[in-house]
# Entry
Amino acid sequence: MRLPSGVVTVLAVVLNTGVGHAAPAPSQGSPPPPLPPGVSATLWKLSVPPGSEPTPEKVALGEKLFREKRLSADNTVACMTCHEPELGFTDGKALSEGIGNQKVTRNSPTVLNAVFNATQFWDGRSATLEDQAKLPILNPREMGMPNPEAVVAKVRAIPEYAAEFKKVFGRDVNYDDLAAAIAAFERMQFSGNARFDKFITGDAKALSASEKNGWALFNGKARCNSCHAGNAVSPLFSDQKFHNIGVAAHKQDFIALARKGVQVVRTGDEKQIDELALQTEFSELGRFLVTKQENDVGSFKTPTLRNVGITGPYMHDGSLTTLWDVMDHYNKGGVPNPFLDGGMQRLGLTEPEIDDLVSFLFALTDSKYDKLNKEQLAKQRARRNNRPERDTEVALGKKGHLGDLAPNPDLHVKNPADLGIYGDVTPVAPSTQSKPR
Ligand code: HEC
Ligand code: HEC
# Structure
């Protein structure tokens, strides 16, 4: 497929927001591997930095390392433990567990299509797959190795790896090469062969009437496409941006947390952010940990919706169990908080509309996971009447303060700029704001 050069430029920008990384020139190297209908060769080339094209040798070594429990302090946890290929590269748990069954404070996202992410992690703290791979090995709750030197020493002492690194990279094991091999394996984990892809490339019968109606609602009444647009240039169903949609907003006082957070965070220190994100209450500050911008408090990366049928539980904290719960969350406009994204509004969706949207979301699963997708749909449907997040009154606008125009009509007291994360700013009463002439 050929894209107009304007689109390619936009794509290059969208896909390269990682700090300090220049937009890669279109790769001169090896041609892309055979790609599924949902992934264009242009996207592939833009997403794989020149020199990082996965060679079969690197991919094979990377896969071995991805499955290697000896990369953890007590030889019990591999990348695969939390990103199980058979489970769509997730662990099926609300919160992941690392060595010694320690829980982290976040849900494991899928590695499928992570190659196309503009940034890695829920808060985008890593710019590349290589940077990303170096962190879980060293996180005390995940794989628990004390430092890169210890990892390298351990891997060098395993004769099989010593030989294979020599063969693949032409030198002794080092931490960068280890991350590069894992990243090469991950770059081959693309997915774009769902029933939706058949439908969008011309097979009108690939979706049922209910799924088609779900797709229409997705782009219309339900407004999902304002953050999760899906099309040829955005095949992940993600705008790759960060939003506060009010997940877990009822669990904390964001202002107090952000004030404390400001004292602790050293921006730019990836390792520190990793530990705060996975081991502390500051996890809930989301993107704010990376940018220290007030408007990023509680905001997280818009995740891909491909394969979402098999990657539950949902959201950065795994707090929503089914896609019906997700729909209930959106239908009521999320959970109000001072940093709620302006795009979050009550939707007034009816039960049949919610069912159609859920069927549509299940049609985004790659055909290689058909069986699991059907099982998950059945499991979730069995909970269809158990709906802790449902609030029909609010969703239909009969209750609550969420109007149709803006989530916070009383902005003069709730304007984030006046909340004083960086010191006490007493809100100015509206009457004194503009002096009479
Ligand atoms: C203990 C469970 C656990 C282990 C082990 C683990 N991960 Fe993860 N992974 C997670 C969680 C949880 C997140 C999300 C953390 C966050 O965003 O703060 C994550 C995020 C990621 C992401 C980012 C995906 C995205 O959409 O942003 C990638 C890629 C990834 N892991 C790959 C790996 C690799 C490679 C390894 C091994 C070197 C690994 N993981 C080991 C749990 C784990
Ligand atoms: C304002 C932007 C925005 C809108 C509008 C939006 N989303 Fe999201 N979506 C997000 C963000 C951001 C997250 C992650 C939030 C978090 O974890 O705190 C998310 C998470 C999700 C998830 C969880 C995925 C996972 O792997 O955990 C699903 C499913 C989802 N959205 C579907 C939808 C649907 C369906 C709609 C329309 C009804 C919609 N979204 C509207 C931004 C948005």
